[in-house]
Design goal:
The chain has 580 residues and is of the alpha+beta class. It has helices spanning 34-37, 77-91, 99-106, 109-122, 127-142, 216-224, 242-245, 248-254, 355-362, 376-392, 408-416, 463-472, 483-489, 494-507, 527-535, 545-550, 552-563; strands spanning 29-30, 148-149, 166-171, 174-182, 191-200, 206-209, 232-236, 259-262, 288-290, 305-315, 318-327, 332-334, 340-341, 398-400, 431-433, 479-480, 513-515, 523-524, 575-576. The strands form five sheets. A seven-stranded mixed β-sheet has the order 3-4-5-6-7-8-9, with helices on both faces. A hairpin with a 5-residue loop joins strand 5 (191-200) and strand 6 (206-209).
Length: 580
């Protein structure tokens, strides 16, 4: 980060920086894990210099400066030019977290690609812009690996050219660093909190688990907690998921004396470079050690940190793998995607610009609703609805353009009537949410049809009820395994998941809290509650029949993937957690 920005480049991307300087404002990006690749593509409103005027719209409430690119090669003119085009194309679909899944289930891949392209071209009248939009639309319809980007921070965040970080202590010698990233295609929309955890070892050194973006603010916060360069003993990448390991190489350069430990099955696609991906991976020659399944073989085992590791071969040529940690002195269970907990109020990081604007955009039930942007209740509503979209994927309470429930012409007409076009996209809001249960809503009936019109305005569950069922977790513990991880990955071997959950409770009975890498943390926890939440994967969707029905879209997607051998059917032996 010390090399950002180039002093020879202007301080702002407006109106049009030299081509060699554009990488300094291109948002850093990366690929996604297989499950996340089903969500969508593209992200963030493009900088005005990188897209046609008709689509280069600041979707924030205030002017913004785009975030700088990764110096390891994640940005650059090519990425800067392609990402906005993808963003512009997919933004027209709005609420598009389910686009890829819906396309597959409805069997209209080609027709959907033409539809998105047509809309994108209509929004980009200039010739170069039309070509960019077409390229972006084609990518949206066809590319299986998506692009993840940090939304550009607003000038309201103090004029910083870097995404914000919220740092907090979660105990004596336990520190959390929260950032966020946006779901591609929703520049103003759903943003996911992502967390780095730093644990103090018994000898006074520190372990960094799942490193985040090392912005100057983040690095200074680390120093403020008393962690200096020589104090960092280990940098641990606890999963193969790209968003949790992407910044590992940067931290390895910043702390060259620290040992780097990676998930044993780390791979890259379509060419498997392992962790040494040219340009964005670790530099050749960097010593990388594989986290042992036998925790007693890890150097931190005698320094107050224990771990367990589970590997699940859930689909051809891909795998889920996660190493969960236990910080003994604070009684803290630290994990990546193994658990989430949801509070009714948004995590602090999401209340900062540019993420706050996303919550305000989602706060409306429909395009013509007028909301109080200064109200905490409004912000809370936006958080709960966007989180429902991220976890339930296609909530039953939601009608959207992406799922074919609403039409583009109708929603464009409503955009012209929007009382608050400043919330983003000139009033375009391709969603219609049902707030409370309709009298005729069948709460416990799973929606098996994905055809257009399978949802109706009249008979829908309300999103407030859906949220309550989601936030309750498993057996009212407040915990659950994220739905994508649960239904598409860990459920491929129920026996292994059950054994893993039982071992967590057996080995760490004095657990007091949990720090997952997404959403709310720290969470009050007991070993038994964590066991219940994880072992529920082997039993099927959590909670009541109504909660299972809320997951209709994911369950339908799972069934489709199983039927077509795109993921393995559940079978003993696909998962492994015991040390040999």
């Amino acid at each position: 980060p010390g090399s950002w920005p180039d002093p020879a480049c202007p301080a702002s991307p407006q109106p049009a920086p030299p081509r060699r300087c554009r990488r300094h404002w291109a948002t850093p990006g990366s690929g996604t894990s297989m499950a996340q690749a089903f969500l969508a593509v593209g992200a963030g409103p493009p900088p005005p210099w990188a897209a046609p005027a008709a689509v280069a719209v600041s979707a924030r409430l205030e002017p913004h400066a785009a975030a700088p690119a990764s110096t390891s090669g994640g940005g650059g003119p090519a990425r800067a030019a392609s990402a906005p085009a993808v963003a512009a194309a997919v933004t027209t679909a709005g609420c598009s977290a389910l686009v890829a899944a819906v396309v597959v289930l409805r069997g209209h891949r080609r027709r959907r690609g033409r539809s998105v392209a047509k809309v994108a071209v209509a929004a980009a009248p200039s010739s170069p812009g039309r070509r960019e939009a077409l390229v972006g639309a084609g990518a949206a319809a066809a590319v299986p690996i998506a692009v993840l980007q940090m939304p550009a921070p607003s000038s309201a965040a103090g004029g910083s050219a870097f995404p914000p970080t919220v740092a907090r202590a979660a105990g004596d010698g336990l520190f959390m660093f929260d950032q966020a990233y946006g779901i591609p295609g929703l520049g103003v929309g759903a943003n996911i909190p992502i967390r780095m955890t730093v644990m103090r070892l018994d000898d006074g050194g520190y372990m960094i688990y799942n490193p985040c973006n090392p912005t100057p603010e983040c690095v200074q916060q680390l120093k403020d907690f008393g962690v200096s360069e020589g104090d960092v003993r280990y940098i641990v990448l606890g999963t193969i998921a790209i968003e949790h390991k992407y910044y590992g190489p940067k931290w390895a350069k910043m702390f060259p004396k620290a040992e780097v430990w990676i998930s044993p099955r780390t791979f890259s696609w379509p060419i498997d470079f392992g962790a040494y991906v040219p340009g964005v991976g670790f530099a050749p020659g960097t010593e990388l050690k594989k986290i042992p399944r036998d925790a007693s073989q890890a150097p931190w085992h005698t320094q107050g940190v224990d771990h367990l590791q589970i590997t699940m071969d859930y689909a051809p040529r891909t795998v889920f793998e996660e190493t969960v940690m236990y910080h003994k002195s604070t009684g803290t269970f630290v994990c990546t995607d193994m658990l989430i907990g949801l509070s009714d109020d948004p995590p602090e990081i999401l209340t900062k610009s540019p993420y706050l604007e996303g919550l305000l955009w989602f706060s409306r039930d429909n395009a013509t609703e007028n909301v109080d942007t200064g109200s905490e209740a409004t912000i809370r509503d936006g958080y709960q609805k966007s989180t429902l979209l991220l976890n339930n994927i296609n909530p039953r309470s939601l009608l959207s353009v992406a799922a074919g429930d609403l039409t583009v012409p109708d929603q464009l007409g409503l955009a012209f009537k929007s009382p608050q076009p400043q919330l983003g996209y000139f009033g375009w809001y391709p969603c219609n949410w049902q707030a409370t249960d309709s009298p005729c809503a069948q709460l416990e009936q799973r929606q098996t049809s994905t055809a257009k019109g399978s949802k109706s305005f009249e008979c829908r569950p309300g999103w407030r009820g859906e949220w309550a069922r989601l936030a309750a977790g498993v057996e009212s513990t407040g915990f659950q395994v994220p739905s994508f991880v649960s239904e598409l990955q860990l459920s491929r071997d129920p026996e292994a998941v059950t054994g893993f959950a039982e071992e967590i409770a057996r080995r760490w009975p004095d657990m007091k809290q949990a720090v997952p890498s997404h959403f709310t943390a720290p969470l009050p926890a007991t070993a038994d509650n964590v066991r219940k939440a994880i072992s529920q994967v082997a039993k099927g969707p959590p909670g009541t029949e109504a909660r299972a029905a809320d997951l209709s879209a994911i369950l339908n997607f799972r069934d489709y993937l199983e039927k077509n051998d795109l993921i393995y059917k559940p079978q003993a032996g696909r998962g492994q957690w015991r040390a040999v």
